[in-house]
Inverse folding.
């Protein structure tokens, strides 16, 4: 998996990591991280992979992204963070994980 493939963007500014999270492909997410993909890359709306995982309630993927250094405080263009997304969507397991990392200052 080459970095040029990982960083290639579609018409919405989404890279391969965004797509892998959207399709809940945890193996591809892991490969992208291992290949050096940027876990904090934002699409044109400012969404990171962690925003997507928190909106969808993908706990395993959110956990993997956090371990790789994903920013729990990353705000998209509407100033909403992954933590706020998890609460809004009722994904309390994801919220709890994000909040733990937030409290630790990670």
């Amino acid at each position: 998996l080459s970095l040029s493939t990982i960083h290639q963007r579609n018409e919405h500014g989404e890279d391969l990591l965004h797509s892998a999270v959207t399709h809940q492909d945890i193996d591809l997410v892991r490969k992208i991280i291992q290949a050096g993909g940027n876990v904090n890359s934002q699409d044109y709306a400012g969404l990171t992979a962690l925003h997507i995982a928190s909106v969808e309630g993908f706990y395993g993927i959110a956990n993997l992204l956090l371990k790789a250094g994903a920013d729990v405080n990353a705000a998209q263009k509407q100033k909403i963070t992954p933590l706020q997304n998890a609460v809004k969507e009722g994904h309390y397991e994801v919220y709890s994980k994000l909040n733990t990392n937030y409290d630790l200052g990670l």
Notes: The longest helix spans residues 92-103. Helices lie at 3-7, 16-22, 26-34, 49-56, 59-67, 82-88, 92-103. Residues 3-103 form a domain with the Serine Threonine Protein Phosphatase 5, Tetratricopeptide repeat fold (CATH 1.25.40.20).
